[in-house]
Amino acid sequence: MSLVKSFHYHVSPGVLIGGFMIELAYRNLPPETIFDVICETSKCLPDAVQLLTPCTIGNRWLKIIDVGRYALAFYDKYSGEGVRVHLVHDKIEAWPEIKTWFLKLKPKQLQDSQRLFGQIKEADTGIYQVDKIRVARDFLKKEPDEPVSFCPLCHEVFLSSNGAVCPACSGKYLPYRSGSNSALPYYEPVSPANGPSQESRHG
Amino acid sequence: MSLVKSFHYHVSPGVLIGGFMIELAYRNLPPETIFDVICETSKCLPDAVQLLTPCTIGNRWLKIIDVGRYALAFYDKYSGEGVRVHLVHDKIEAWPEIKTWFLKLKPKQLQDSQRLFGQIKEADTGIYQVDKIRVARDFLKKEPDEPVSFCPLCHEVFLSSNGAVCPACSGKYLPYRSGSNSALPYYEPVSPANGPSQESRHG
After folding, report:
1. Interface contact flag, A71 B138, Cβ < 8 Å
2. According to the model, what pLDDT value does residue A190 have?
3. Contact between B26 and A103 using a beta-carbon 8 Å cutoff
4. In a domain, B203, yes or no
């Protein structure tokens, strides 16, 4: 729990549920499988994967394909054979707090977190479904080590596969301007120890 | 380094460089700023952010907008004021190993990792540029706690904002079939301790 808190910043029901889902995925993969993971949501679940498996967003062994479902797939990175685990709504009837959380029947502040965590633990692996999957060959191909180019507009280095101009300069949405803003000094004598605190963040 | 290894699975130059970029972002934000982060690449850099700040993919304080540039933005989550940090190619001329790595002048196996890490540390914060940015108001809006629906096709719960049918069933690409595959048992007596090992994974 303290690991979850230090990483995800708060212990969320979704990360705990993710722990059970990952446990089930492990149990249903042949031992020694070298696996990659796909998360079908970007909310909470990816953090359980990043904490409990070697797969992270940055090392590219975890991919998020956000179709808004609370599901994940573990699969052999060479054969594509694997399992998909999801939370089954029929099975949460017996667990009112899980149902309330999963179906968003109450605002978060009104949920009884202690009962919710208790029910998730008590339900154990009984509220999930595991299905065999086979990931498409094309998706398994090792990403080539792409060459880079200089963007003639922003003068930054980018992956050449994106075209002659980097995606940010050719119109892909970024919520800020970059490239022509006034530069700050590279170094300002602000000690990182005095840097921003996240103690009071709320949301 | 051992923290990086346990999370990102290997100590990568990109994560170390990310560490310096984050240090610069912290120094150039007012103390006590409650910040969110945008990464302009999904390679390596997000893991540095997830290790060294409270912002993760799963808690939604880190967002990846992949325009293929090695850059990140830290910004006040309420005002949008912040800084963007990127690696500047003009400044790496003096650091041949960094240049070789960044511009991909040699295959990874032929890079001199020890010299590369040494140069990254020696270059310190001198190879980056920090620019002021202001993130668009629309992007700062708190994500509403979206209601969920049952998908009439896969019978799974999904975020209602996606329409009447979940994105996976309405055609969004997933590299495997789901919903109609043969179910595995929910529980198989395979101890997680005997589960897959990642010791021998290589890429």
Report:
1. no
2. 40
3. no
4. no
